[in-house]
Amino acid sequence: MKGTLLDIDNLRLTVETHDGPRDILRGVTLSVARGETVGLVGESGCGKSTTARAALQLLPKRAHTTGRITVCGTDVTGEDGTDAAQVHDVRAHRAGMIFQDPRSALNPVRRIGDSATERLRLVHGLPAAQARDRIVALFTEVGLRDPDRLLRCYPHQLSGGMLQRVVIAAALSTGPELLLADEATSALDVTTQAEVLAVLRRLRRERELGVLFITHDLLLAAAYCDRVYVMQDGHVVDEQPAASLFDDPQHPYTRHLAEATPRLPERNTPERHSPVPASTQPIKGARR
Amino acid sequence: MTDALVVSGLTKTYRGAGRGPRVVAVDGISFTLAAGGSLGVVGESGSGKTTLAQMIVGLAEPDSGTVVIDGRDRRDLRRGRRARLQRATEAQMVFQDPYGSLDRRLDVAGALADTLRRHGTPKDRIARDVAALMDRVGLASRLANSRPHELSGGQRQRVAIAKALAIDPTVLVLDEAVSALDVSVQAQILTLLDEIRAESGVALVFVSHDLAVVGQVTDQILVMYRGRAVETGDTDQVLRRPEHPYTEMLLSSAPGPRWQPERVAELRAALAAAT
């Protein structure tokens, strides 16, 4: 496929436990194209995070996988002779990942500047001054004010929304083509979530990024993504254009999730029950 | 009939960092809630909604203002076991993480029996009441001997609700009680809360950042911004026709059809200019 950044084909994953092997993924097939935001939704334990981790080979040793994962043209499962260096190259240059809790992604006793420029300095071997300039430019792009001051701050001095912007800037600093966002805005206030996602959407357009957007929030996936996969119990059970996720759910599980999701009433429509008793309301056209 | 809960002029400040000024967490909140009524308290983190909840149940002391439940002032701190148990029957709270409010050594039946015993249920009635409570919150009887770590998040939240209901409180305060649950479990708990409210006439104060959830379980709403109530009214009406720019911003942030996250930054700038 042309422009496919992430291609997962029939991925199965089993973990050894005390009670014997346990199937976590039972045949996951999905793809993300360049410039596309693809949602991956499902309830806790369905395997959505594991799928993203498998794409970057961030799995525990006890995990055994079969199936094929291609990231930006590189088979990372090692089936056709990929070595560790190539997987490393994918993680260092081609794909970035953003997690739910930015505080766990940043070292609490190091300054923001150190953490944010780490990949540029250590992996790309950029001199500190250049790495710093690049991060300052990115901080401005993700809507962080006064970037020079921020570089000297510690994580506890910033709000969750600011930290998540820092993490996004750091993830984009190495110029990845594919971004894996795992509940990246779930811990933020709805207002902050909207602001952060507005930034991410603009960057995705400018850089033609492919984004795998993992969330438990069906409404968010429907509103933000182009296409959505629904996972249940290690399977991808449904694939839908985001627009039809609520209006025309195909799979019974998608329908179940859609029905269980509370929705706001339509704006500027009549109330479901009139707060004023009908008899006391002025009659239209009546003389005053 | 007296109102179940009357809150007037409730204010709370915290000491600021270093020598900074005191931080006003809650600033002159007043409302009344009838028996069987439900009030949603919404706002961003830091808006003061949790502090308000804590003051209602007595986990935080107001600087000024009063909380009156069933006609009794919560500040009337008579000492002794009896007065303490009396206060407990006035208001109960359910938290986001039920793990913190359950004793991990006690199984479900043990935890419920413990609460019932403290509040003077005769020994021979405890087993029956425990079974009835479990049935009421939809916990299967086979779970009676399970400890908290053996239960799912939804089951644990049901135990926390059952414990709160065991003593038949006048007011039940829920602080982000369904926020950590999967949607299908969340839907079950919300239905359960509706049933309980209809059956027992308990008044609910439902604190949440999730406007859609609040829209589903409450009749009245109070929107908090920087410690103040910027908008109050009928929940459905406020959600359909918000009047305050802050409510407008909250509603525009919630993902849904025709969602434009880009607009939120503009609305926040407009709000900052207006206040």
From TrEMBL, chain A:
Keywords: ATP-binding, Cell membrane, Membrane, Nucleotide-binding, Transport. Residues 264-274 have a biased composition (Basic and acidic residues). Residues 257-288 are annotated as: Disordered. GO terms for molecular function: ATP binding. It comes from the Bacteria. Residues 6-258 form the ABC transporter domain. Belongs to the ABC transporter superfamily. CDD domains: ABC_NikE_OppD_transporters. This is ABC transporter ATP-binding protein. It holds the Pfam family oligo_HPY. It is found in: Cell membrane. InterPro entries: AAA+_ATPase, ABC_Ni/Peptide_Import, ABC_transporter-like_ATP-bd, ABC_transporter-like_CS, Oligopep_ABC_C, P-loop_NTPase. It is a peripheral membrane protein. Gene3D superfamilies: P-loop containing nucleotide triphosphate hydrolases.
From TrEMBL, chain B:
It comes from the Bacteria. It comes from Myceligenerans pegani. This is ABC transporter ATP-binding protein. Keywords: ATP-binding, Nucleotide-binding, Transport. Residues 5-251 form the ABC transporter domain. One of its GO terms (molecular function) is ATP binding. The keyword Membrane does not apply. InterPro entries: AAA+_ATPase (IPR003593), ABC_transp_ATP-bind (IPR050319), ABC_transporter-like_ATP-bd (IPR003439), ABC_transporter-like_CS (IPR017871), Oligopep_ABC_C (IPR013563), P-loop_NTPase (IPR027417).
